[in-house]
Amino acid sequence: MVSNFVAPGSGAQRRLIYRHLAWLTALRYQLREPRSWESMSRRHNVEYRKFYRIVEWEGDLRAELEALLDPAEIEFLLKKKNTATQLIAIQSKEIRELTVEGSLGEFPRSEMQRTLSLLLDSQGKCERIKNFPYPRQFATLNLLFVWLFILMVPYGLLQEFEKIGAAFTWMTIPASVVVCWVFHTMDKIGDASENPFEGSPNDVPITSLSRVIEIDLREMLGEREIPAPIQPVNNILM
């Protein structure tokens, strides 16, 4: 949209696109921040971390922004609690200034402001997923019911196998193990999937998605030094 509405080769076009890249960067850094209710501090997850890397935990937001924004703008943003939201506000302000000076028409301004509103709405949805965990009573009762089911399964299967024949009674053990394993695994999958930005191998690959968008936008600017796509590490794409 910026490439269509703002004059090609202008400083404004480059600033708007680079600021959008900065917004993507700031948002993914915010979404990767650990929360007390997330499961990445559990022993099995800590042990599995050696098989992949999380760029946002190893890198520095300031260093990432220095390649995209002016130093004064970076200093202003890093003092704010929600950097991504402030970047949307700065984008909106520059679009308004471009309209006032005549570099941008009223229709393009309206469309670009509408896009910013959609981006802010999408950011809010991601932040709500990140910052508001499932109700604790749901997780507690679900775990209680699963273990109650696991304890009752052998007694239910025992009578059914006895109907087949006394020789089949021992089949209660392997059958119970299989059934209980299935339900216990389903509970664990739900537990691992409820926080899609916590840094686990099951996360939404926001780092890779941001890189794909960055490649497309830099190509629109006609740049030659294009970063390579993020590659999976041990078949894990972050």
Account of the protein in words:
The mean pLDDT is 86. This protein has 2 domains: 2-132 and 197-220, no CATH class; 136-189. 67% of the residues lie in helices and 0% in strands. It is built from 11 helices and no strands. Helix 2 (11-31) packs antiparallel against helix 7, helix 2 packs antiparallel against helix 11 and helix 7 runs antiparallel to helix 8. With 238 residues, the chain is mostly helical.
In short:
The protein is an all-alpha fold and 238 residues long. Helix content is 67%, strand content 0%. It has two domains: 2-132 and 197-220, no CATH class; 136-189.
Question: Top keywords for this entry?
Answer:
238 residues, 11 helices, 0% strand, mainly alpha
SSE diagram, text form:
Layout lengths: L1 H4 L5 H21 L11 H6 L6 H4 L2 H6 L4 H8 L4 H18 L5 H26 L4 H29 L7 H22 L12 H15 L18
Helix pairs in contact: 2-7, 2-11, 7-8, 9-10
Q: How many domains make up the coordinates?
A: 2
What's the tally of helices?
11
Mean pLDDT: 86
* Gyration radius over CA: 25 Å
Spans where pLDDT lies below 50 across 5 or more residues? none
Order of secondary-structure elements: HHHHHHHHHHH
**How does the major sheet shape up?**
none
What would you call the shape?
elongated
N→C terminal distance: 28 Å
**Which percent band covers the strand fraction?**
under 5%
Number of extended strands: 0
Q: How much helical structure, as a percent, in the residues?
A: 55-70%
> SS-based structural class?
mainly alpha
